[in-house]
Amino acid sequence: MKLFLNKENVFTDKANPVITKGDSLFRIFNDLILLKVKELNLYNNLEISCQNNYKFYSVKESQITYARDLSKQEVNYFGISSELSSNNYVISVNKQTGYIYRLAGFDTNDFLGFLADYKEMYLKCNSKKLKTSTFLKNFKVEGLDFDCLYEGLRKDELDRKKYTCLYRCNESISFY
Prior knowledge:
Elements: H1 2-6, H2 23-32, E1 33-39, E2 42-44, E3 54-66, H3 72-78, E4 88-94, E5 100-104, H4 111-126, H5 132-138, E6 139-141, H6 146-154
Antiparallel strand pairs: 1-3, 2-6, 3-4, 4-5
């Protein structure tokens, strides 16, 4: 669903210029898209007295395929493409709450929300606050650079050239 919502509307149907990106289009998208999802390794050296409910998943763009060839018109609605096929979309899912955090590849990034929620969970479980520096030092996920995400998202202006961890999969290759 996050991939579908991340896709910019590109409607070229002159007979139907206003097509709403809603449930019916999502159902078609869901039937067409085939994803090879990889669960990422988590390296958590934080002492926590309750279960860690966060899982991390990656979809490499080169592993996004379709149940059938898309027509030119369908590509506008359903196609997920990028200039670079080596980039990943990464999300985290809190299994307890169902919250989903977009951490790499998407147009927007939810890392600061993820960090705030993780620190809140840590406080509830351990009855003590977790410093951001302690989190960044001790919580690692395969393929993610939390230091880069934290620094890049805290800046007044987003600089994707300096903070390459904020690269969007649908970004033009000429941006870099």
